[in-house]
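Hi W.,

Here's what went into the run:
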Amino acid sequence: MPVQPVAIPEYLRADRHLVAVDCIIFGYQDEDLQVLLFPREIQPEAGKWSLVGGFVREKESLDLAARRVLDSITGLTSIRMYQVGAYSDPGRDSGARVISVAFAALVPVDRYDRELVREHGARWWPVSHLPSLIFDHRQMTEDALGFLQKLADSELAGRDLLPDRFTLVQIRKLHEAIFRRPLDPGNFRKKVLGMNVLEKTQVKTTAGSKKGAFFYQFRKGK
Amino acid sequence: MPVQPVAIPEYLRADRHLVAVDCIIFGYQDEDLQVLLFPREIQPEAGKWSLVGGFVREKESLDLAARRVLDSITGLTSIRMYQVGAYSDPGRDSGARVISVAFAALVPVDRYDRELVREHGARWWPVSHLPSLIFDHRQMTEDALGFLQKLADSELAGRDLLPDRFTLVQIRKLHEAIFRRPLDPGNFRKKVLGMNVLEKTQVKTTAGSKKGAFFYQFRKGK
DNA sequence: CCAAAAGTGTTCATCCTACACCCATGC
DNA sequence: GCATGGGTGTAGGATGAACACTTTTGG
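Here's what came out:
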């Protein structure tokens, strides 16, 4: 355990804590919002389903720790991560007193490193049918979903999750998965375009229909 | 420094951190929202203005730590506290690597323990004219204010801060201080009463006007 | 031609804002 | 009676939900 050079008595006297980050990694597949879960590798509760997490290192911000964890498990970098909140009940982790900060991320299901994920025995679970989770990870996941809904309302979620170009139907389906209810196609379209964060391309796809739908992309500026 | 009995290697190997809470204590005085600040008592940066904070103890949740700090400085208990966020840049505290979680509270300026506060040399500062603050306390304060504005929008802030009975003008002035702009008296009145969290008493006060205004109080249920 | 998805337009209710107006009372 | 702040009513704009309608094209 590396020891930090602290010369100030008040700092020296204070208790030190294990601090972790836990990542709620959301993906989108089969028209459903999914969460990446892991069979826990260490005791206690080894083998039970868990969020991905890791201890925060000596000289590392929480954000960086969350990024490191996400990267180590999916190979993905430069994905936005959102701080959901800190969880600190002294008994929350049955192994030791650990303070954990939850981070949410939306990742593209088609671009992460499947090898890495398989190595860890991870699995995607639909948010509507989660298995039983260790500690307070269930609460974290629910809080993260709430956070995501607020985010989607205010600034359109999914920038990191969707492919570079996508149809309005695709992003609507994603939002339907986030809000867990159907959204009116016409109204959604108007709202989203009114936000002025998407731009239309001249490319059409006939994947979803005979008529074909135009691809859109996020504006560079934002 | 007490040592926690941890038998699990993964837990043992992890770095341990100083974890603190910092409290943004809002009060309302002279028709202005104010923040309680302290001349910092310890090195480094001793004497500079700072939020009230304290290290989190061995077996103590963050919420409890924040309550303890608030109590120790104002004598107030049973005040709602809101988690604003975690601040973790490795260099944020020039004394040592400290992870801090910010909590906001709204306290009644007429009921805290003035002796205690005077003892620490604390002072109320209007949010619009804060002195220079140590570390990232300025950022914390701004974030807390943003949090407060969202809160006031959704559920009417000030339950802990206002006297038991207050006029609609009083709570409007408070919200004007929170949002830092004038609010239409008629519209505010309708919105607030529509929220259905206040009940009218039969008591009038002529303190603010010749006609007199009715006192209201928060409903018990919520 | 028709089914089905993409995309547009219209209506209605709701909410917020601005502002005009009435009420009660001390001076 | 009139100035002052408390309290009510109303008209206009913005937003969002519900839903009808038009467009395109593969089969």
